[in-house]
Write a structure and sequence with these properties.
One of its GO terms (biological process) is kynurenine metabolic process. The chain is α/β, with parallel strands linked by helices. The chain has 13 helices and 19 strands. The chain folds into two domains: 261 residues, FAD/NAD(P)-binding domain; 120 residues, 2-Layer Sandwich (D-Amino Acid Oxidase, Chain A, domain 2), CATH 3.30.9. The strands form four sheets. Strands 6-5-14-15-16-13-17 form a seven-stranded mixed β-sheet. Strands 8-2-1-12-19-18 form a six-stranded mixed β-sheet, with helices on both faces. α2 packs across α3 and α11 runs antiparallel to α12. It binds flavin-adenine dinucleotide (FAD).
Length: 430
C-alpha cells in the first residue's frame, strides 16, 4: 500500500470544483470521502435542478486544461457536448448584429450545460473504488482545526484528527466523521469550511454584494416555436454544431444585447435552445421588473429594450420565466490564507467568489485543483508545506481575477457599444 492509499481526503461540496478535486485525489491513490448537502442531482425524483445557479456556463482553455491535467480521457468524456463560441455577437436596438471575434486564430470559449457537466463528473466518480459520495449531509463543524499553544505531547496526537460534524438534511441525524486526514472545502460562496478556518486563525476576508441581480430567460429551439429566426451566419465560423435549422441565433457566439445600465446575454445549448440572462440594477428589479409588475408592463419593457430577443422568445415564454425564475444576487468574496496548516484548505467559490462577467468562476476553481495538485506532488503530498505554498502563490492571481470580473461588466454592458471600442477592435483585427 502506498502512503497515499493510507490517507483519506475529505471533500465538502460535490459541485463542479469538489467533484474535480475528488477525481484528482482519487487518481493519486487517496481514499476520498465526498459530502454534499443536496440530494444527488442525477436522481429523477429530485427537483434540485431548479436550485442550481445558471443553466449553462462558459468553459475556457483555463478550465479545459485543468480537467485534462486530472485525466485526459475523462476530460474528453465530460466535455463532449461543448458548443464553441468564437466571439461576441452584439445586438443593437434595431436588430443589427455585430460580430466581435475573440482571437485571430479561432480561439473560443465554450457553452456547456452546468447540470450535465456536474452529472458527468459524478458519473466519473462512481467508476472509482476509492471514492465514497455521501449526499444529503451538510457540514456544520470541523473540530480541532486550531492547535492551541498549550498543546502538549499527550494531546498532540488527538489534535491531529480533525473531526467533521454533519447533519442529515433529510433525516436530521448527526454524523461524525473521524477517519479524514485532510479536509478540502469546495462548498461554495457561503462556505462552512471557510467559517471554520476563520475561527481557527486570522483570515483576511471581504465580501461584497453588487447592486445588480440576474434573471434567467430562454429562447427555444426553432422547432419548438413558430417564431422567426435572427440567424446571422456572416462570421467565418458560422455553424459548428447541429444544423442551422435548429438554432434561432448563431450558436457559435456569446450574444449580448448591451443597454449601458443593464444587458441581456444568451449562450447556446446543444438542444438548439439558448439560455438568456438579464443582468440589471436592483432598482430596475424593484420597479419596472418587480414581481408585482403587470404582464403588459413586463412585455413592454422587454419589447422596448430587447425587441429582437423577445421576438424569438415570445411573450408567453418570457412571462413564464419572468414569474417562475428567481432573481439571483451576485457576490464577490476574497480571503487569505486559504488553509490551516496541512489540515484544511478552501478552493473554488469558497475561496474566491466572483461576479460572472468574465465567465471564470468555475474555470478558476478547476485551475485551483490543477495548481494545488501540482504543488502537492512537488512536495510529495506534504500537506502543510503544499497548502502553505498554494496560499502564498495563488492569492495574487485570484485577487486579480475577482477584480477583472467586476470590470468586465462595464465592458459587456457598455464599452462594446462605443465607437472607440469598435475602431480599436477592427484595428486589432477582431
Ligand atoms: P458551487 O457550485 O457553489 O458548489 C458548492 C457545493 O457545495 C454545492 O453543491 C453545495 O450544495 C455544497 N455545499 C454547500 N455548503 C455545504 C455544506 N455545509 N456541507 C456540504 N455541502 C455543502 N463560471 C464560469 O467559469 N463560467 C461561466 O460562464 C459562469 N457563469 C456564471 C453565471 C452565473 C449567473 C453565475 C451565478 C455564476 C457563473 N459562474 C461561471 C461561476 C460558477 O457558477 C461558480 O464559480 C462555480 O459554480 C463554483 O463551483 P464550486 O464547486 O466552487 O461551488
Amino acid at each position: 500500500m502506498s502512503s497515499n492509499e493510507s490517507h483519506t481526503v475529505g471533500i465538502v461540496g460535490a459541485g463542479l470544483v469538489g467533484c474535480l478535486a475528488a477525481l484528482a485525489f482519487a487518481n493519486e491513490g487517496f481514499k476520498v470521502e465526498l459530502f454534499e448537502s443536496r440530494p444527488d442531482l442525477r436522481d429523477p425524483d429530485q427537483q434540485v435542478l431548479s436550485q442550481l445557479r445558471s443553466i449553462n456556463l462558459a468553459v475556457s482553455a483555463r478550465g479545459i486544461t485543468a480537467l485534462r491535467s486530472v485525466d485526459e480521457e475523462m476530460a474528453d468524456r465530460v466535455l463532449k457536448d461543448l458548443v464553441p463560441m468564437h466571439g461576441r455577437m452584439v445586438h443593437d436596438l434595431n436588430g443589427k448584429q455585430i460580430c466581435q471575434k475573440y482571437g485571430l486564430y479561432g480561439e473560443c470559449i465554450n457553452s456547456i450545460n452546468r447540470s450535465l457537466l456536474n452529472r458527468s463528473l459524478l458519473d466519473e466518480l462512481d467508476k472509482l473504488d476509492n471514492v465514497k459520495v455521501t449526499f444529503n449531509h451538510k457540514l456544520i463543524r470541523l473540530d480541532n482545526l486550531k492547535r492551541s499553544s498549550s498543546d502538549n505531547l499527550e494531546n498532540a496526537a488527538n489534535s491531529e484528527v480533525v473531526r467533521g460534524h454533519f447533519v442529515g438534511t433529510k433525516t436530521n441525524e448527526s454524523l461524525t466523521v473521524e477517519n479524514v486526514n485532510v479536509w478540502i472545502g469546495a462548498d461554495g460562496s457561503y462556505s462552512q469550511v471557510r467559517s471554520q478556518i476563520q475561527r481557527a486563525l486570522q483570515m483576511n476576508f471581504s465580501q461584497e454584494y453588487i447592486d445588480h441581480y440576474y434573471l434567467e430567460l430562454r429562447i427555444p429551439a426553432k422547432n419548438e416555436t413558430a417564431k422567426s429566426s435572427h440567424f446571422d451566419s456572416t462570421c467565418p465560423e458560422a455553424v459548428e454544431v447541429g444544423t442551422e435549422a435548429k438554432f434561432a441565433l448563431n450558436p457559435n457566439h456569446l450574444h449580448i444585447w448591451p443597454r449601458h445600465e443593464y444587458m441581456l446575454i444568451a449562450l447556446a445549448n446543444s438542444d438548439g435552445s439558448f439560455t438568456c440572462t438579464l443582468f440589471a440594477p436592483k432598482s430596475l428589479f424593484d420597479k419596472e421588473l418587480a414581481i408585482s409588475a403587470s404582464d403588459a408592463d413586463v412585455v413592454s419593457f422587454f419589447r422596448t429594450n430587447f425587441p429582437s430577443a423577445i421576438e424569438l422568445m415570445g411573450d408567453d415564454l418570457l412571462l413564464e420565466s419572468f414569474r417562475k425564475n428567481p432573481r439571483g444576487s451576485l457576490v464577490c468574496v476574497k480571503c487569505s490564507p486559504y488553509n490551516v496548516g496541512g489540515k484544511a484548505i478552501i478552493i473554488g467559490d469558497a475561496a474566491h467568489s466572483m461576479v460572472p462577467f468574465y465567465g471564470q468562476g468555475m474555470n478558476c476553481g478547476f485551475e485551483d485543483v490543477r495548481t494545488l495538485m501540482a504543488i502537492l506532488k512537488k512536495h510529495e503530498f506534504d500537506f502543510e508545506t503544499g497548502f502553505n505554498e498554494y496560499t502564498e502563490t495563488r492569492r495574487k492571481d485570484l485577487g486579480a481575477i475577482v477584480d477583472l470580473s467586476m470590470r468586465n461588466y462595464q465592458e459587456m454592458r457598455h464599452d462594446v457599444t462605443s465607437t472607440a471600442y469598435l475602431l480599436r477592435k477592427s484595428v486589432d483585427g477582431f
